[in-house]
């Protein structure tokens, strides 16, 4: 029961203990025991993530999109060029530049931050920074060696059409949805993007710090 003297929003959720339940190449799962407002202890399972970046690459009319198979839903989804922050101590902009080159074969002269989002805060610490990239130049993509990327479709889609895909239900990836709507607002002058130096407050650290402490660097997926 919540105390009658408790003021909502003021409780300190102190962690009494933490137990690591699972460790896999791209995520971890832990169980935290946390003090609730009424004084009782409750367990919360948390999926740990490296964090990620995504890019809305805009050529003046179109944005670069990919269609990729996702086993979790058993379907191909329209998405933005994106990827994990799985290289030890790599900053977000460098990660975004790498992913844009690898997935779309593009470089950009102008970069800004559209939005940051926490994808599933009820159980996962994944946070994603979405960039706007302009002044685009085509470059060679590295050779695809396997996994879902070998089946990835790349396509330029008019930004107005991508916005329409959000409302038709054709675009359901949450990161792409947030990026497309944010880009539409910024490029139409209804909002302003942030500089790339803006702090990424919610970038996850638990998984990456544990991997670095164990010497799993620079590629923190390679257990």
TrEMBL record:
Gene3D superfamilies documented for this protein: Nucleoside Triphosphate Pyrophosphohydrolase (3.90.79.10)
Protein origin, superkingdom: Bacteria
UniProt keyword annotations, A-Z: Hydrolase
Nudix hydrolase domain location: 48-179
Record bears the keyword ATP-binding: no
PROSITE patterns, per the entry: NUDIX
Pfam families: NUDIX (PF00293)
Endpoints of the signal sequence: none
Keyword Hydrolase: yes
GO MF: hydrolase activity
GO biological process: nucleoside phosphate metabolic process; ribose phosphate metabolic process
InterPro entries: NUDIX_hydrolase-like_dom_sf, NUDIX_hydrolase_dom
A cellular-component GO term for this protein: cytosol
PANTHER family in the cross-refs: ADP-RIBOSE PYROPHOSPHATASE, UDP/ADP-SUGAR PYROPHOSPHATASE
Protein name: ADP-ribose pyrophosphatase
């Amino acid at each position: 029961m919540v105390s009658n003297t408790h003021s909502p929003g003021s409780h300190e959720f102190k962690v009494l203990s933490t137990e690591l339940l699972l460790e896999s190449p791209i995520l971890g799962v832990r169980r935290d025991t946390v003090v609730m407002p009424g004084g009782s202890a409750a367990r919360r399972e948390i999926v740990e993530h490296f964090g990620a970046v995504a890019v809305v690459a805009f050529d003046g009319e179109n944005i670069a999109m990919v269609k990729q198979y996702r086993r979790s839903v058993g379907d191909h989804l329209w998405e933005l060029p994106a990827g994990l922050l799985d290289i030890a101590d790599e900053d977000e902009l460098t990660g975004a530049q790498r992913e844009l080159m690898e997935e779309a074969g593009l470089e950009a002269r102008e970069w800004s931050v559209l939005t940051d989002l926490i994808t599933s805060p009820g159980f996962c610490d994944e946070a994603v920074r979405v960039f706007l990239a302009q002044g685009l130049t085509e470059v060679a993509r590295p050779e695809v060696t396997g996994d879902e990327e070998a089946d990835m479709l790349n396509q330029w889609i008019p930004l107005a059409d991508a916005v329409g895909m959000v409302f038709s239900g054709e675009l359901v990836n949450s990161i792409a949805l947030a990026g497309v709507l944010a880009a539409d607002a910024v490029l139409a002058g209804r909002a302003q993007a942030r500089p790339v130096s803006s702090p990424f407050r919610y970038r996850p650290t638990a998984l990456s710090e544990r991997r670095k402490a164990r010497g799993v660097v620079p590629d923190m997926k390679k257990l």
